[in-house]
Amino acid sequence: GQQLNQNPQSMFIQEGEDVSMNCTSSSIFNTWLWYKQDPGEGPVLLIALYKAGELTSNGRLTAQFGITRKDSFLNISASIPSDVGIYFCAGLPLSTSGTYKYIFGTGTRLKVLA
Amino acid sequence: DTGVSQNPRHKITKRGQNVTFRCDPISEHNRLYWYRQTLGQGPEFLTYFQNEAQLEKSRLLSDRFSAERPKGSFSTLEIQRTEQGDSAMYLCASSLRGSGTEAFFGQGTRLTVV
């Protein structure tokens, strides 16, 4: 099935550092969602974005809906050990407008070194 | 009601057996989704319901798979004649029409076919 590209695929960072990751597609999306998934658990919704250029924060997390509508970005400030996990983007393509078939990214695996 | 509930959390079955999973969505959420996630991948869309109507099915959903949501509340996903390739995490999510398109996931059912 179709999946969105996420970069980086994985990253090790020191506690306290800021983290940036992105999600890209060749097609236009109406909605972007960001999730965090811990091993053996379901994805937990972090942030939802609905308009091009929209910037939304949730605590130390900030996400942006790209102006081209083909990408989205997630930043984590001052990372802490519990930020460890896999971050997924998910979107609703314009081409499937009217349906709710979310397309997921390949994931960014974050590891935080204390 | 604190979230989407899935049962069982884990299921080990022998090849060729039938299995059934249950999903209880967040109360009043009228949309319900099933996704499958294999190791190292993002979730892949299988099917979704609006109330009791199954509105879309992925080509991933072979004829051995069937999903129902008979009264527009809980849903079941049945896999007949399981194969080793069916081993995966099966995730259920729900969302509320009219409040954006945020989808909230359950903890998943991990299926292992031996």
Descriptive keywords:
heterodimer; A: 114 residues; mainly beta; 6-stranded mixed β-sheet; 5-stranded antiparallel β-sheet; 11 strands; 0% helix; 54% strand; B: 114 residues; 7-stranded mixed β-sheet; 4-stranded antiparallel β-sheet; globular
Structure description:
The complex is a heterodimer of chains A (114) and B (114). Chain A has no helices and eleven strands. Chain A has strands at residues 5-7, 10-14, 19-24, 29-37, 44-49, 55-58, 61-65, 71-76, 85-93, 103-104, 108-113. In chain A, the strands form two sheets. In chain A, strands 2, 4, 5, 9, 10 and 11 form a six-stranded mixed beta sheet that branches. A five-stranded antiparallel beta sheet of chain A has the order 1-3-8-7-6, with no helix packed on it. Chain A is globular. Chain B has 114 residues and is mostly beta strands. At the A-B interface, β4, β5, β9 and β10 of A face β4, β5, β9 and β10 of B.
